[in-house]
Amino acid sequence: MASAASGAAPVSIPHLLARNVAQHGSKAAYREKEFGIWQSWTWSEAAAEIDALALGLLEMGANIGDHIAVSGRNRPALYWAMVAAQKIGCIPVPLYQEAAVEEIAYALEHSGARFAVVGDQEQVDKLTDASTDKITLEHIIYLDGRGLRRYDHNVMTSYADVQERGRASSRKAEMQARTDARTYDDTCVMLYTSGTTGRPKGVVLSNRNVIETSKNSSEFDHLRAGDEVLAYLPMAWVGDFIFSLGQAMWTGFCVNCPESADTMLTDLREIGPTYFFAPPRVFETQLTTVMIRMEDASKIKKRLFDHYMAIARRVGPDLLDGKPVGLMDRIRYGLGNLLIYGPLKNTLGLSRVRVGYTAGEAIGPEIFDFYRSLGINLKQLYGQTEATVFITQQPDGEVRSDTVGVPSPGVELRISDNGEVFYRSSGTFVEYYKNPESTASTKDPEGWVATGDAGFIEESTGHLRIIDRAKDVGKMADGAMFAPKYVENKLKFYPNILEAVVFGAGRDRCTAFINIDLTAVGNWAERNNIAYSSYQELSQHPQVLELVASHVNDVNASIADDPMLAGCQIHRFLVLHKELDADDGEMTRSRKVRRAVVGDKFADLIAALYDGSPEIYTETEVTYEDGRKGAIKATLVICDAVVTARRRMAAE
Amino acid sequence: MKDTVAPYTTADGRQIGDVLMDMRGITLRFGGVEAIKDISFDIREGEIRAIIGPNGAGKSSMLNVISGFYNPQDGEVWFRGAKRPPMKPYQVARQGIARTFQNIALFDGMSVLDNIMTGRLTHMKSGLLAQAVWKGRAEREEVENRAVVERIIDFLEIQAIRKTPVGRLPYGLKKRVELARALAAEPKLLLLDEPMAGMNVEEKEDMSRFILDVNDEFGTTIALIEHDMGVVMDLSDRVVVMDYGRKIGDGTPSEVRNNQEVIDAYLGVAHD
Description:
heterodimer, A: alpha/beta, Rossmann fold, GMP Synthetase, Chain A, domain 3, 22 helices, B: 2 domains, 6-stranded mixed beta sheet, globular, ANL_N_sf (chain A), AMP-dep_synth/lig_dom (chain A), long-chain fatty acid-CoA ligase activity (chain A), Long-chain acyl-CoA synthetase (chain A)
């Protein structure tokens, strides 16, 4: 795909839109399930909707360079709002729809947005609650007017009304002039990082960043106009921006929006995307559901499933990688595909997936292999907002669960002396908005960006392997390497363990907090006739503790194999009485553990892990979804784990 | 006790109109038992009207009188300015009165969608034969009715369970489906018999929000029976209080709350 219809290379998303209208005008560009039916818009129709909104915003007084906040669940109209903003020289700033009021207030104040386009009453309420004198927000444009009838309509207007105003506008030429004036180095979008530490930062990405990245990554995976994606991940996340807007605009594929968050899996099945992206959590949940249902299936079905899954595990990944496989195995796999894999993929909504990605967190090897053995081309990539997603990704045929792949096209990699990964690419962000110090400390004058992750490049394959967050990699009291994330990920690969936090920096041994997965452990409890009335009770049940201990012991045994990390084995652990939660500040909105917050909040529990006490009484403050606070009281049992002797000592 | 207040606007900006339903001197007896004794009250257009009272006060009986399930021995029921002759429940339904039940009365084996579609029955005009052939008007009607139902599904946020058999749903969702079915009839007056019984706090909050939204968005007049005093006081514009089949209070929530007779009925005093 070479250039725009006009002949000049497209330098912004609105330019790409114009090109798509010219090339695929009557093909579906967006779909959304509403009122039980998939409504669809062609590229021409979408462009008309975008124009109407852009003109409406122009009439309302949006100036060149204004930030326009966008918030809500994935809906075509909100994607259009981002493009409409760009058409009139404004910069879209998507916000996490689940963000708390303070987080929204911070983003509004920091970005200085005057307009916001949002989904529904919930978002309007948050924006209204967030308003202080420092916030410059003037007008809210909402999509779904339900419940808003008696709000102050001097400061809000419905999306349809703004479009109406736009359709009546005579300033089309002015809009076109603003669109044409965009250059390759103008800002395309500003995205707030979720911020594992401190305040979120506004990452400024230029048109060059977004378009070059979209082009390179689309070519890498041979994405094409006929592809289908399901847009269900937060719009404020850089991944969604690139997949559902950048790549969609570059290749002209169709973006499908689910009816609601709850119907995502049903909608996934109905659409059957060809290009699919999900964090490991989604794959884990799907696999857990499948396994739980198989436990309840009849004996014959269960045996059939087990038999063919064993074959799939043996030959499936090789078939996918194009490696030689014997004729008999091919026949067996073919039969399995007919009886088990095909129907299963169909149920999961993954029948048509040509390219699937998982990223954000490490995925368990068992989970990863499960999907690949079914013939789903699931791959891993490694990236961050500052890189416009892509740093490394796995090419077809070179997919393994323990690496994150080779550098993406146009990306240079460098490993510093202390093991931190640095990159430089055409996707490297412009700056952190209003934060030159952070920009300078992250990106050096030559354009190299520190990822904050420690890793190394495998010499034999050229693949990158990530060990841990560089700042989390520490030393234990005896100087041995301490890589908590590495251990936590190994723990989290067990379906029963939802989350784990490992401590040990500067200490003589490692300890851990464990969160059980209520779905998996609850089901296990039901099958084993274990009665419980609450999460808290289940978490402290002796048999549950035994179950978790067996997982911890297995992890210890596997860590012991690695001479570098053998010191990270877990000596003592406890199972937490509550799930770590973003509402309590223990995790980020993208569900990454905030180590420092957890360390502070549960200082008493950590102390108990190290002072040898058999149990500890604790009170924890919790925040409910509606913002009210309460306290949970619990006595937690502290368990000892079996530590495996270092193998190399045995060899001596 | 007849009040003749002109239409007005509430503090939160809702329009309260003329009297929609007027109950005049209703008395209902079952053999020797007087379930309702000479009760009069009215329900105005656009308002949320609560009927409260201790167990056995006659609240459900009152609702059954409104819905035409019982015909009172004495008294008159006036609906939209006309005196209503004794009617069968289906005739009342056609007049634009829909209800939910204290004990959920849904078709367990049918999907949520089909259950809600049954609420459109009063709006279907094509005959049995036409329905069976499913051509022309029957097909057109089905499509129109489905569109109405889908809007309600969207409104009550139950898209994810559209195809789920009702029997498999948890209690709180069943209650919501029942509300959906009642709404599908596009009623003028919606009767809710203990819409929040047996719910936890979060479910109650959801349900309260839906009731307020229904009233606001569709302008539906709502009469509800509820035990949770907090909910009643927050939701309703006016409250009728019943005790032993008699009306012992009628007015705004704050008026009712300060009514001595009501306090006695709820806190309990010695009856002679």
